[in-house]
């Protein structure tokens, strides 16, 4: 008999001048918090949450949220939108976790910018992290060609300032390899104001920011990184391997593109659970070195 679908519930928690809208599914013993990337909205994780809750009954409580200044999570007057603060966004994750209640630790899954926020959360609140899984967090300063990538980002800022949002987004979109592959569904688009906030307030900060991964290693945070097979050599995919080398953690080659968890959820789910199992085993064994694993089913 098929298990009934567990409902998705919505709530709001206020933190540092912003109403954070979050969604919860399941009532399991392990909390997973899904942190959105630059598009900012929670809806991209609903398929993953449903799959985890309905196929692993009793194991997971899944939570995600619209990030600060994105979608429903807007600052309250007289507060105004501000430049991206990694520490503040980490505190937003903490506020959501506390609002859910009942958990001292969480599994974090962050994709893209969400992965950077997850790293920062683990830096600031290591005692609150069970495991951290970062999917293609674009820490460009770690790349061998970081100067070239940084120059390209400076160019994009100039394009945004002189030619507008559409031109900058189109050029950035050329790096999102795999989105046009045959048979791949489209991702859920963000609200129209989200890209404007990203380019105005987030991208200029992210160009030069990288969390202190050495501190995560020193604190023995349980970490794994992921890169999508469809992304090929995109800078954010290559960054996942550089992070894993520093952290001496597993890096998985995963199904899908930069948003593969959203549109190839069934293929993504098994390797995601494999990663959690491996992190449990490595922690029990006292850690281990950098390991690459191909989880795409390729020969």
What is this structure's SSE topology?
Layout (H helix, E strand, L loop, with lengths): L7 E8 L2 E8 L4 E6 L10 H10 L4 E6 L20 H15 L5 E6 L1 H12 L4 E7 L10 H18 L1 H9 L19 H14 L6 H6 L4 E6 L6 H13 L2 E5 L5 H4 L1 H20 L6 E4 L5
Parallel strand pairs: 3-4, 3-5, 5-6, 6-7, 7-8, 8-9
Antiparallel strand pairs: 1-2, 2-4
Write up what this structure looks like.
- The chain is of the alpha/beta class.
- It has one domain (8-294): Rossmann fold, CATH 3.40.50.1820.
- 40% of the residues lie in helices and 19% in strands.
- It has a nine-stranded mixed sheet with strand order 1-2-4-3-5-6-7-8-9, sandwiched between helices.
- α1 (46-55) links the parallel β3 (30-35) and β4.
- The longest helix is centred in the last third of the chain and has 20 residues, at 265-284.
- The chain starts with 7 loop residues before the first strand and ends in a 5-residue tail after the last strand.
- Keywords: Hydrolase.
- InterPro entries: AB_hydrolase_1, AB_hydrolase_fold, AB_hydrolase_sf.
